Amino acid sequence: MFASSIALSLLAAVASAQQLSSTLTQVVNFGPNPRNVSFYIYVPKNLPPKPPILVAPHWCHGTAQQVFDYRSWASAGDKYGFISIYPNTSNVVDQCWDVSSSATLTHNGGGDSLGIVSMVKWALRKYDGDKDRVFVSGTSSGAMMTNVLVGAYPDVFAAGSVWAGVPFGCFAGDGFDVWSDACATGKIIKTGAEWATLVEKAYPGYNGFRPKLQVLHGTVDTVLYPQNFEEEIKQWTSVFGYSPTRNETTPNTPLQGWTRYRYGPKFEAYSAAGVDHNIPNQDELVLEYFDLKCNGTKKGKCYSRASGHGA
């Protein structure tokens, strides 16, 4: 399945231990959790009223602890006043998320996705969090889970950031730990309408708010082929009712050789030229996209489900 090189490259990028106000803590008995996903949470010592929440699912062969160590979410939470959640899969074979079962791809259907949503709901209750400012971002298998959570639980999340993933439902199959070589190698091709139907079937009858989304992918990814980036674009532009024609192109952002394409106020895609599956996560970009630096300074104007404004 996924090479463990993502974890290794991230490990090499760690320069020093973070100086944090609190510690990563495990929570048990937090609600419906049919697949026994483990729940770890970081809560800054000094929380503002109604803190936002960021969910950070790990990659294949990764762990919640590794995401906590290698991403800046905890230190950013200290600085900007948000809680971060680090789920850990029960899949001991390859530590990939269940993004294939009908349960996980269905609203309140079960699977790993329901366990993660239970973590969010527990944290919202426990810390009086802002239910309109819940976000999710992951890489590789974590990116797949990000698409699953945004697609199956649009009533829970405000936005997602997907780093080297595949479309919602692309890995669908019989079982919880299905590997789809056809999807991974970019052989599953659908129309935008066909992809959108998978998202719509995840929560039948839902006509409410849809979380905004950004997807990012390297052009030489040989684990999850770049065709998946094109399929994600078709899927989400169709879900949002946008034209598949780009209405804005910005080269060399946030890095040289990366290009941002915007299709509407709630969907953007970044193509990273020459980048393989080990796409370098740009935490600052994610924080800006989620408006997590807002920190209460723009009361009533921070991005949220309630505000409804775009990027």
TrEMBL record:
Q: Which residues form the signal peptide?
A: 1-17
Question: Where is the protein localized?
Answer: Secreted
Reported EC number(s) for this entry are: 3.1.1.-
KW Nucleotide-binding (keyword) present: no
Keywords carried by this UniProt record: Carbohydrate metabolism, Hydrolase, Polysaccharide degradation, Secreted, Serine esterase, Signal
Task: Name one cellular component (GO) term.
Answer: extracellular region
Instruction: Look at the named UniProt entry and state the broad enzyme category this protein falls under.
Output: hydrolase
**Gene Ontology biological-process entries:** xylan catabolic process
**What Gene Ontology molecular-function terms does this entry list?**
carboxylic ester hydrolase activity
Family designation: Belongs to the carbohydrate esterase 1 (CE1) family.
Q: What does this protein do?
A: Esterase involved in the hydrolysis of xylan, a major structural heterogeneous polysaccharide found in plant biomass representing the second most abundant polysaccharide in the biosphere, after cellulose.
State what protein this is by name: Carboxylic ester hydrolase
